[in-house]
Structures are given as C-alpha cells and as structure tokens.
Amino acid sequence: MVKVIKTFCVVGLFLLFGCQPDTPLKTNSLSQKSSVHHQVIEWRLATSWPKNLPGLGMAPERFAQLVKLMSNGRLIITVYGAGQLMPALSVFDGVSNGTIEMAHSASYYWKGKAPAAQFFSSIPFGLNAEQMNAWLHYGGGMALWEEVYQPFGILPLAGGNTGMQMGGWFNKEITGPEDFKGLKMRLPGLGGEVLKKLGGIPVDALTGRELYGALQTGAIDAAEWVGPYNDLPLGLYQVAKYYYYPGWHEPGSTMEFLINKQAFSTLPDDLKIIVKVAAKAINQDMLDDYTQGHITAMDVLLNEHAVQVKPFPQSVLRALKQARDDVLNNEAAKDPLFNKVLESYMANETSVKRYFSYTEDALSRFELEAQQQQ
Q: Tens of pLDDT along 158-216?
C-alpha cells in the first residue's frame, strides 16, 4: 500500500499550520529544527471519472497537486481515471481491500453495500451544496458518514460538489406523473428508486460517455448526468429533445474522497492534517468551478444550440416528492443505520429550509415577482 521511494533531508522551515502571529512556536516544532529526515510516500488514487474530465476529473488532480505542495513533496499521490487501474465503480472495493490508498467518487453508487451511504452525496428534494457542507462539518453528518464506512475500513472526506443539477435530457415530453410509466432513464441512487415508484425504469450502470449512444439508439428514453458544464461536451443536446429542470433528484451532489484507514493511520500527524485540509479546500474549489462552469455552458446551450429548456410541471414535482418520502420511510424500516442517518438528515433539512425561507429563498421570490411585474 504505502511505498517508500527515498529518504532525504529538508533544511529550514517546512510548514506552519494553525499558528497565530503572536503565538510562540514550541521549541520542538518542525520549523525550529535545522533539518528534518523524512520518507517520501507514494499513494495511488483511482476515480470514477474519465481522466481530467472538467470538474469531476480535475478535482482529484488538484487535490494531488495541493497535497504535494503542502507536504513539500513528502506525499505523492498519482491519480488514475476510470478504467486505468480498475472499472469506475470498483474504486470503493479497491480502497476497502487496500489495492489503492484513495479514490474519488460519489457515495450513492454504494447503495448495494451500505444503503445509508446515499445521504452523503445527495437525496431527492434534499440539501443544496451549502446546506450539505453545513450538515457534514458542523451538524453531525461527518461522524455518521464515518460510521457507515467503518465496516469497510474506509475514511470518507467530502470531495467537492457539482451544485444543483438539471432535471435531465428527455426524448419524451413530461406533462404529468403518468408520463414516467415505462420511461427508461439513467438515474442512480434514491432518485432511481423514486422514479420506480412512478412506474419508471431506472438505469444506474451507465457512465457519462455511454449516455450519448444510449440516448441515440433508444436504449434509454432520458438521462441525467450532472449539468451544463459536463453535459455540453458530451453532446447530449444532439440526441435529446428537451432539457428539463429543476434537478429534484440531486439538489447538491457531494463527491467523496475515500481513504484506506490503515494507510491513513501510518501517515505522520502533519500529513494527516494536510490530506484533510487539502480535501476541504478542493471541496469548495470544485463547487466554485461548477457554478461558473454551469453558467457559461448554459449560455452556449441556449444561444448556440437552441436547446429546449422546460420546467417539470408542479403536479410532477408533487408526485416525485411524495414518492421520495415513501422511499425514505420504506428504506428506514428495513435498515436501522439508514434510519439513524435519516433522522439526523431530516432534522437538519427541516431547520435549514426554514432558515433559508427567511433569507435566500425570500430574496429569490422577490426578484422573481419583480421580473413578472415588468
């Protein structure tokens, strides 16, 4: 797992972390030593995304660069795209069994291994990116995530967010809940279970690059991937008639860094901190990247490709929301750990949505009403 490739000496100041300007350094601190002997450690990180895919694929690359810089070259992480070391959806097992030290993926892919894992990516009609970060880091979500992955020997860290997604690409117009009956749609996680409640057929094994052909041949009738930033380069607008919104199924999709706990335990304390701080930085950086990327790509889809953007009818959203509640309650009845996470998540969702109704949502309603009156 951990490969030592050489030992060398670093002279002078290495890293100051968490020190205030007026706080004297301890006499045994790293910066006080004239030289520090250390080992260079090499890790492998496999992703569920194509190598260097904008947004999803670049987040682990930037993470590896940041760790190398912050550690002064003591921890080198080599990133492999989907299929280079293992299939896209085998990375969880790869980290769990120690074949690789790290992975970058999305937790809802592991619903068959741990149903409660789905909460730590995104659930239908759930928390947005900002709200997810608050729940994870200050609302008890991270401790629950660690509990869910504990049997697999994996330490999870939030690893980015794509923001609220679009509702997907459709070759069939959606005018009411009945239009989902028999509809084959690429839709993973709990969103797929909700679709099934309305008579749809979820397909969750397709990767981004497979969607174009599946839509083109009619193997599926609809597909969601991420949003304009990633949908545009895939050319999905060429093989689907309608682009629906909002992304009820994923209002704020958190990505994850998966770390083999045994490998992590062997790191010096300062490298453990560097890995966690770098992950937190990338968690925000990826959201920033996607927010601007979606804005720019949507302009292209609308202005250059004349994409038909359509809202889901209110009757459809109401039916989907009811189906979501039924799915969550059914899953909670079968799995005590799922129920434990659900209780924490829903308590947070109730409070945070009430607060947002007084703040961001209130301002958005005002701006919408002002536009309608013009």
A: 999 999 999 999 999 999 999 999 999 999 889 999 999 999 999 977 777 789 999 99
**Contact by Cβ (8 Å): 67, 274:** yes
Contacts of 362-369 spanning 24+ positions with Cβ under 8 A: none
- Residue 155's SS3 state is strand
Alpha helices in the chain (DSSP H): 58-70, 91-96, 129-138, 141-149, 189-197, 208-217, 228-234, 261-265, 269-303, 314-334, 336-358, 360-373
pLDDT tens for 303-344 read: 999 999 999 999 999 999 999 999 999 999 999 999 999 999
> Which of left, alpha, beta for 311 (phi over 0: left; psi -120 to 50: alpha)?
beta
Residues 159, 256: contact at Cβ < 8 Å? yes
Rounded to two decimals, the pTM is 0.86
Q: State phi, psi for 7 to the nearest 5 degrees.
A: -125, 135
